Amino acid sequence: MQVLKCEYAVRGEIVIHAQRLQQQLQTQPGSLPFDEILYCNIGNPQSLGQKPVTFFREVLALCDHPSLLEKEETKSLFSADAISRAKEILAAIPGRATGAYSHSQGIKGLRDAIAAGIASRDGFPANADDIFVTDGASPGVHMMMQLLLRDEKDGILCPIPQYPLYSASIALHGGTLVPYYLDEKTGWGLEISDLKKQLEDARSKGIDVRALVVINPGNPTGQVLAEDNQCDIVRFCKNEGLVLLADEVYQENIYVDDKKFNSFKKIARSIGYGEDDLPLVSFQSVSKGYYGECGKRGGYMEITGFSAPVREQVYKIASVNLCSNITGQILASLVMNPPKVGDESYAAYKAEKDGILQSLARRAKALEDAFNNLEGISCNKAEGAMYLFPQIHLPQKAIEAAKAANKAPDAFYALRLLESTGIVVVPGSGFGQVPGTWHIRCTILPQEEKIPAVITRFKAFHEAFMAEYRD
Amino acid sequence: MQVLKCEYAVRGEIVIHAQRLQQQLQTQPGSLPFDEILYCNIGNPQSLGQKPVTFFREVLALCDHPSLLEKEETKSLFSADAISRAKEILAAIPGRATGAYSHSQGIKGLRDAIAAGIASRDGFPANADDIFVTDGASPGVHMMMQLLLRDEKDGILCPIPQYPLYSASIALHGGTLVPYYLDEKTGWGLEISDLKKQLEDARSKGIDVRALVVINPGNPTGQVLAEDNQCDIVRFCKNEGLVLLADEVYQENIYVDDKKFNSFKKIARSIGYGEDDLPLVSFQSVSKGYYGECGKRGGYMEITGFSAPVREQVYKIASVNLCSNITGQILASLVMNPPKVGDESYAAYKAEKDGILQSLARRAKALEDAFNNLEGISCNKAEGAMYLFPQIHLPQKAIEAAKAANKAPDAFYALRLLESTGIVVVPGSGFGQVPGTWHIRCTILPQEEKIPAVITRFKAFHEAFMAEYRD
Fold first, then answer.
1. Which residue among B46, B146, B324 places its CB closest to the CB of A97?
2. Do A111 and A277 form a contact (C-beta atoms < 8 A)?
3. Contact B135 A297 (CB under 8 A)
4. Nearest CA in chain A to B107
5. Residues A107, A403: Cα–Cα separation, whole Å
């Protein structure tokens, strides 16, 4: 049964245990060696205190209750550009009905805005007809898997380590995950030679490999692909006839000066590939970036290079679920078109955005350094996204203790970490890793003032763990 | 390929054609024999001018932009109970973070409120742990189908006619739809004898029938089940070991005095069946009722009577999509707990609610009478929901013309209706019907002042159609 095969570690056993401990802290304060649970398992910034961007929320509130726009007091409560943006958005919604089902792909005027945002980001045109607005990025991924996978002989090339949405969705839709390994030694590099090898291996086993998933910036690895590497990936997909599924939800989360985000569509168009050369899907979400609006469930996929009959099937799947939520649709149009220089909100918006991204960069660096200072831990640089994925070189004794407890060694480590410190991380086995290596994924999202305490608690735990299990 | 097999008529060919005509009206006004497209294909009240309930939108706006709660002007812009409700809701959300992913089942405090609303509706206890808050009702249906269907040997008993979400979801998840027929002659009655016959037929073909879908009030039929009938259905499910999937999204939409809504859970508990007797799922949505907040994508399913391992699988599927949108979650808690006598908003809320429901009842009656006054059309009473499903007794000549045009006869009729009047309805073939009978589904949602014009246009079309094709 496909549901039984599916695994989703970022909300798995350890998180459920953490929720139990959190209840225990409420009902029996002082009964645990820590006084709060610190969720570093999931990229959920606002759950850890990040504030929403004011402009976005002003517009949402006005669209939720449009009669505010007729009141005098509103002018003193909301910024002028939030008011004018809300009016523009309402004018773009048929009948100004924010409570109506929209077109299955999303409200046309909002898709126009999203396409304009993409075009301005990439310097290449984008088309509202290619946009499917979705409840976060996940439903888009499920739709594409549903479309691409007929049975277990259909395969999808996925990075290892990968975000478990992909393995879960492939399992749910009855296909086969064809792994390719990111190279930890070269900062989680993506080697075309490994891609090619894994593709040929799969084909020799009779697997019809239909698509390649690339997550850039990387989850859980935090790497940002170099432009050259992206060009090679695009050529590889064209030559091998693969759909390129580009998870680009961390496009705003870049923390190093020598890397920048390039969408795969921009790369493809830059090297002269048009619609006919390559079927390409780009996933974007309002949950990540500096906005971190996970709870609003907004996002979109931009699909290009598919034939009309295939697009019709995508439309049909989208239409079965009627439409994505309008609040999320509005927010997706906003994150792709934030305030501009000259707008009343611009200075405040810019300060909020820069404040969040600069703080994330500092937090990433502090955690990365802390991990690298611990015995038996090595951690690549967090160039982007919201995670670190350090390797834990576990002593043999710890591995045996895990075996005795019937746990994967990294799950054993993560569980002990939770029980000692309240820090929730996800074991590397949930993402996939080179056999015999062990990792954890830890978000960089605890509030900045809490980072020193997180590091202190983590260090104390790790040292005690190593002292207990050192070979 | 499961996607190709899936059909979803309420957003199918005719709707796509209508969207084309709508664009034509914009670019070439006057080029068609009507000046607006009237969408009667889908239960989408706000797209046809229904206003959202003020109290609900006030609370949503305050939750979207909580800093409003600190401002003095807010007291003059919002009702006192909307302000206090928003404060309660924010207090129930961990970290007051309306932009964070929630628990996979939905925010615990909101589920508590939903459970309290259910308990107060039914007079039997409800438990927040049994609630899965979802983006409208559809994702809950998909989750259950995903769980229940392993392959094409697994079947689901579905009414014919049915809402095509069920046929689409069963097709997408690779199972078999086992039809049972609602009896048009007895006002779309549900006959246990037919259920039993269809179940035995399916079993004799080796189908493992796992669940029974009942839609009450009915979609597309508009019937409301009698309490006795519901008792029989519950007993049938228990005796046959079937999961009862109760689509109860129209629970607030009842237009006749001699019928009332009873949840299947209330019925089951009333006849003494507890958790162990019957696995039961109730689907509810913020899209229907008097609220009609389709675009907000809120809803929940209440699941009772499942074993712990099965519930864990439901939880896992829910967790793969992280959580439903928080705005929809809040709204689901509100529709299950609207203002009460004594609250500042109560009188306004009550007037809005009654106004909408009374108007819907008048519109249903006017359309029903109009259909029954036309040659060759017979229409059952709309007791509830948002639709009429008249039978069109098409002349043989029309059936042959449809055949020549390579269309189902009811699709041919609906297409001609659209092209003559701009009225969009869904052909009965999209819902299933007794072979050789032809229907259309028409919502009762056009604004009340437009109903006379709708009837006039419909009548003129139908008379011309009959004149053209009369045998």
1. B46
2. no
3. yes
4. A295
5. 53
- What chain A residue is nearest to B94 in terms of C-alpha separation? A47
Residue B7's pLDDT is what? 64
The answer to whether the CB of B213 falls within 8 A of the CB of B159 is yes
Instruction: Say if strands B440-443 and B426-427 run parallel, antiparallel, or are unpaired.
Output: antiparallel
Instruction: Quote the percentage of chain A above a pLDDT of 70.
Output: 98
Buried b (16+ CB within 10 A) or exposed e, B220-234: bbbbbbeeebbbbbb
* pTM for this predicted structure: 0.94
A289-339 per-position pLDDT tens digit: 999 999 999 999 999 999 999 999 999 889 888 899 999 999 999 999 999
- The band of A271, judged by pLDDT with boundaries at 50, 70 and 90, is very high
Instruction: Kindly determine whether residue B47 and residue A138, on different chains, have CB atoms separated by under 8 Å.
Output: no
ipTM, 2 dp: 0.92
Question: Across the interface, do B138 and A322 touch by the CB < 8 Å criterion?
Answer: yes
Taking the C-alpha atoms of residue A314 and residue A145, their distance in angstroms, rounded to an integer, is: 11
Taking contacts as CB-CB distances below 8 angstroms, the residues of chain A near B450 are: none
Mind listing the pLDDT tens digit for each residue in B294-303? 999 999 999 9
Structure tokens at B269: 């508990």
Among A8, A57, A146, the residue with its CB nearest the CB of B319 is: A8
Average pLDDT over residues A238-242: 97
- A-interface mutation test, from B2, B297, B315, most A Cβ less than 10 A away: B297
Cβ-defined contact of A322 to B136 (cutoff 8 Å):
yes
- Residues across chain A: 471
Q: Which residues, other chains included, contact A434 with Cβ-Cβ below 8 Å and sequence gap of 6+? A: A160, A181, A184
Could you tell me if B68 lies within 8 Å of chain A, comparing CB atoms? yes
